[in-house]
Amino acid sequence: MADDGMRVGGLLSGLAVILNGEDGKESSSKTHLVSYCDDFGDQPVERALEHIFDLPNKSVGPLPGPVDSDLVRSIIKNEFSKFHMNSDSLASNREGIFIFDNGCQPHKVGLEELSICGEIRIVKPPLLLESLAMFSSIRANVCVWKGKWMYEVILETSGVQQLGWATLSCPFTDHKGVGDADDSYAFDGKRVRKWNKEAEPYGQSWVAGDVIGCCIDLDHDEILFYRNGVSLGVAFRGIHKKGPGFGYYPAVSISQGERCELNFGARPFKYPIQGFLPLQEPPSVNLLATQLLRCLSKLFNLQCIERADSSSVGKLRRLKRFVSLEELFYPVCHSICEELFCILETDARNAEYVAWGPLLSFMMKVFRLQPAHDYSSLDRFIDVFLEFRESCLIFEYIISALSSCCKTASLVLNECPYSGSYSYLALVCHILRREELMVLWWKSPDFEFLFEGFLSQKSPSKLDLHSLMPSVWWPGSCDDISYGSSLLLTTTALSEAVSKIEEKHRDLCLLVIQFIPPTTPSQLPGSVFRTFLQSLLLKNRGADRNVPPPGVSSNSVLVSLYTVILHFLSEGFAMRDIGGWLKSCETKNHNVGFLHRGGEHSFPVDLFLKNDSYQTDISRLGGSFSHLSKSHPVHDQEVEVVRWEEGCTDDEETRVTHKTTQKPCCCSSYDVELSKMSKHPIRYTAKASRVHCTPIPERSAHVAAECSAGSLNDEIADKPSTSDHSESEFGYCPMWDMRIVPRESDITSATLREEELLDTLLLLYHIGVAPNFKQASYYMSHQSQSISLLEETDKQIRERGCSEQIRRLKEVRNDYREEVIDCVRHCAWYRISLFSRWKQRGMYATCMWIVQLLLVLSKVDSLFIYIPEFYLETLVDCFHVLRKSDPPFVPPTIFIKQGLASFVTFIVTHFNDPRILSADLKDLLLQSISVLVQYKEYLAVFDGNEAATQRMPKALLSAFDNRSWIPVTNILLRLCKGSRFGSSKQGESSSSSSSSVVFQNLLREACINDEELFSAFLNRLFNTLSWTMTEFSVSIREMQEKYQVLEFQQRKCCVIFDLSCNLTRLLEFYTREIPQAFLSGTDTNLRRLTELIVFILNHITSAADAEFFDLSLRRHGQSLEKVNRGMILAPLVGIILNLLDARVATECGGQNDVVDVFASMDCPSTMHCGFQYLLEYNWAGSLRGDANLGKLGQLENFSSLLISRIKVQQIERMGCGGETDADDGICCICYTCEADAQFAPCSHKSCYGCITRHLLNCHRCFFCNATVLEVTKIGEKRM
């Protein structure tokens, strides 16, 4: 009876809880122990084996000795043969399917190469496809005519793809594919349509990472589609019946650059649909392998229960009544693994199916989906697996399966914060801590592809966002305020989930960085990660284009990698020191992020000069790399490291660095509760507008926000330049402790450097992150517009009495409300994924670092021209993203003052730098200025910036050309705001109407001191205004002829009208500040100005239908009170009044007579109508008590005087009779003045005014087209 003392009911330690009860019954373990203590005849080891292998009770007889592997193998051999028979019986149930063997692997479902139309590339064998043609189609080599079948499509991209079924009679062409013929049926989630010759709405919008189940039910003649296991409903009913061998083939059609992976059943389906069979029969060993893994799972359960009952079991062990489960674990686990690998090694397809299916499920169960993860238990099983040589192939498949799962994993609200790809990333990070498995992954030909898979993060669709954020609220919403609290809780949970995933991305990347590959010669840590980065960047050249080339990575991969590197550089490695793999970490405190270290900065400029394949194609500021390497070669001995002291580009008194008492915004704390500021999204988005670089859309930058900043007063000093351009043009900032030194040694280039990561970070932002911020900007702006329209509609509903009108308004209101809800959800998602606090902090520090680098390198032409264009683009875009972020990163008043003072210096210094060849880049800088000066706080920064005050006035006048006149106009208009006629009508409230007196004086001085510059500017201004008004008139006339206001034409009219108003306001400013330019000297400027005034009045007053005219200017959602003719009439009145005031104030003689010039225009009736319209216009209602209202009397007096002068001139002409008509001395251009000048050498004659105006734009005779060398006045000596 001594042996009986080791048993409790015949069970081992922990077995008493579950063996003879149902797994999972929540009964007291003590109760079980007591209830089974009567059966002293049972042997504990035998009963344990019976439970693990699911054998009948007492089927295992008494064992003569301890359990060993031979015993366990014999049990497996004897008891598991039934699963082989079951597999054979399943194979006989597959009727109604035929696989056309390709001659290599019989009975394997694959692609029929002869069916390809277009060009399809196999990205990753066997079935990951990409279209290289505009539209490519392909069929599989299997057809079905009976039963219920399915296959899955994993979307690598989310563009136009038609997935479904087709017969052999379906023709594939360059423009037609699956679903475009009678016997073919397809679903396209991009366009949310189903296709069978004609398209009909169906299904849901899809995103990259979705799994589409394509099901055909030939028993009921139906075709169905599923998205991530959720039915989209029956797509097609009553499909045509087919006979044996002439059935339906799986087929797909995909557009250029789209990728998808087909799974016909060679791997377990991610979302199997009950009742539907896979086209590819599962391997026969799957049932046996599944049962073996179920046995391992039971063994694991016993371990868990033993740990859970450690207190009760421990007491019994001390009484010598139990043996440890450890005696069973190794022999049982080893024997099961031996049998498992034995059946898998016969066919690699067997190993793949089992690894992707039951084995991965087993490992996830052992590891646990959510913390606390069971690392120890998983390690025990992995230790046993690795004892077998065959396990290498299995682990390759496991890693591949985990990578695929990361692509398709979706965030689920009730699983947060451990949702999405977190569990798969946590498992792979733990597995890859084993060196042998890391080596195995690195040696895999799919290493980079799988790495990208791990970094993938599935974005939610519109419907997914509805599931994640069921409750939506915004300020002004009529919904209960509790919806706002619910939304806050939801976004907090999702933020935590995204944060957990990003943490695992960093863990994985750190493992790769730490990994030292077993190569000869040996490599340093970080070499594998660097190679991956270089390969990724090379592959994604052109990813920022409107139509990216085939083969580019998923955008989520680029964003994830950017996030990882940003965290490394910004937050440092305080939590995980990786052993000094970074060069700069050897001497600096690596607990502080690279971007936040004060003191001396350095940058190895060889990053710009290396002839690497992934860098040479990148455009540089001075042109292409190949061109620069020939025209401005930099020899190897000249490769240097640039060093400078942080803040050296700022004034010493206002300098803010990481070592000064006052810290930059990225390293400061503020008492203001920024979260409260974000509760009013309209405040930060209502004025948002996105200005892009014409004409290339991908050059766009986020240059719109409602922001403010403190004043700056930078001390500027001239520095010598190494180019022909004077330093006074492009280098205003002093450089303290700036120096260029030779590189230290070759080992530096072999070590992964933080500066190298920064270079990669900027490029990843440019090609991957910037489009996301652009999309976020769109939703923020659209949200504000939709809320305004919704509120306006609510107002109209309250005011209208007609039931029919109210019904239509309510329908419109519902549409607006849906748009608002959609925008709120998208904005919330972008705040979660893009605007994390630490990301904003890192972006701010990045801007500080890069702008100082650019200013330092601008001192050395030979290096400045080699800087990649994306450095500048990323700097500008990142700056404006931070400035308009919601919630705001820092209080706007200190956004520039504490860290980014150099940004203003850079943009005003280089927006017309001739060393920058790209006109788009110059536009980008110019547009940044245009946006910043729209707000009085930022305008104060420009007033106090010496580079701006010294350079901007003349530079802006010079930049007013055919390409840049729009942003220059906006800038000048903002600088010149002030006392202008009717300004109160234009919405210039006291908070935003402040102008820059400083720049007004500077502009006046620049125009007076440089007459040639001002003359050229004024000529371009006249020409441009004439062109815009002509375009506007033509557009209005086209709409009036058709009597319909098309949206495109209306938008065009609005834009051109605004531009015309702005240009006219500029003329008003110059007639007030520099009236002598029009009243003194020749009357050319005054005459051209007069012609423009008459021209504009004619177009404005000649509209046949005034209501139609005003309607064409009305933007969507705007009232006629805000947009009307008064916008352009007011500056015209201002121009005339300015000239009249100047004529009275000027006492000197010789000035041009304004009345005479107006009276000389050969259109008296037009002028009379125009001035009458000006006088009768409702200025009292428009000006609202404006001080200029009293000046209208001057306009009336001027009009009366003008009419009198015109009558006198008409009488004089009548008195001259026919003599005037017969006089050959009259100018044949204007038919007004005497032909008193002639061209040389052709001697053609005209009036001096017409000739002077003509020569402003062309230096050829307008009679014979001869080149004009001189102009002489008749009767005088040559001029």
TrEMBL record:
Pfam families (alphabetical): RKP_N, SPRY, TPR_RNF123
SMART domains: SPRY (SM00449)
Organism this protein belongs to: Hevea brasiliensis
Superkingdom assignment: Eukaryota
Keywords: Metal-binding, Transferase, Ubl conjugation pathway, Zinc, Zinc-finger
Protein name: RING-type E3 ubiquitin transferase
UniProt-listed Enzyme Commission number(s): 2.3.2.27
Gene3D superfamilies for this protein: 2.60.120.920, Zinc/RING finger domain, C3HC4 (zinc finger) (3.30.40.10)
